[in-house]
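Q: Predict the bound structure with flavin-adenine dinucleotide.
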Amino acid sequence: MSAVLVFFESLSEQLTTSQQELLTLAGTLGDVHVVTGTEGAAAAEVVTVQSVESVYSGETEILAPDPALVDLLETAVQETSASVILSPDTADATDALARLAVRLDTGIITDAVGIDAQRRVTKSVLAGSYTTTAQVDEGRPLVATVKPNSVQASIVAGHPPEVVSLPVGPSLTADGAANGGVEVLERTPLEASERPALTEARVVVAGGRGVDGNFGPLEELADELGAAVGASRAATDAGWIDHAAQVGQTGVTVSPQLYVSAGISGAIQQRAGMQTAQTIVAINKDEDAPVFEIADFGVVGDLFEVVPQIVEELRRRKA
Ligand SMILES: Cc1cc2nc3c(=O)[nH]c(=O)nc-3n(C[C@H](O)[C@H](O)[C@H](O)COP(=O)(O)OP(=O)(O)OC[C@H]3O[C@@H](n4cnc5c(N)ncnc54)[C@H](O)[C@@H]3O)c2cc1C
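A: Predicted complex:
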């Protein structure tokens, strides 16, 4: 069976749902090896998945966007003779895989939603209106990034895989100078949130221009539902919430069990990121808003009146 190399720029204490999805997909394509910037022994404790044979890492931790990650990837490809190299579609992983593709004299396919046994890659394009199929030339490795929520995660726990340390280190030299064309001046960790990650959440509460700068009621609803908070581009562009919260064509794709859309018109670019939610509840004061075309339940009303009533009812039922 051919080797499939899965790149995770870093691993935390547990595999995220999208990492599990990627390992599931990789398992259908060949023997799975993981390569990561995280230190090897720590990474192997996280990737205790039956289908994963080995974990490749550098001599020490290598943090994205260090170009040394590309050296690490290239060395791991040589070691494993991988014919398929996959990563999640994060900015840093896409950057590293694109550079790797140049070195391997192949192309890169980004934002894949499926890959079959013949290495045909499907993508959803033009805000989900079309599905395209692409394939790399025979004899060239397939390099692709995969969107979250594209496959159902199904992994079986196993023993920690073999750890292989490769002779690659961070490109920052001992005196702190950058060696590979990129210098990281400062790192600011994301503020820890009690809420689930947006792409992983079972419930998402999202707001748009209609919140008029005040996400307070939606945050309260999210807290009651244990939900992540998402947003339309109008809301993120206005600076009312971080860009990481943007759902849609140029934001993240979510596929939760419940998506509450409040004060969002439902433009095609927004739908592209949420239309596969199992149940969509729309709250909009315009009864002709396009979002009602895809909503399972709709409330025509002012979100500042409707949302507090939902919160109150949830609290009453919980009490
Ligand atoms: C290339 C491209 C990529 C894009 N990518 C994305 C993307 O990834 N994600 C995305 O979301 N958009 C994206 N957009 C923008 C998209 O086209 C829309 O402009 C955007 O989604 C509109 O956001 P909105 O629904 O919040 O605002 P609007 O369209 O202005 O809608 C606001 C809605 O709120 C309702 N409303 C107002 N006040 C209230 C109230 N008090 N209570 C209840 N309802 C109220 C209004 O009736 C209206 O329906 C993209 C556009 C382009 C061209």
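A: The longest strand covers residues 109-115.
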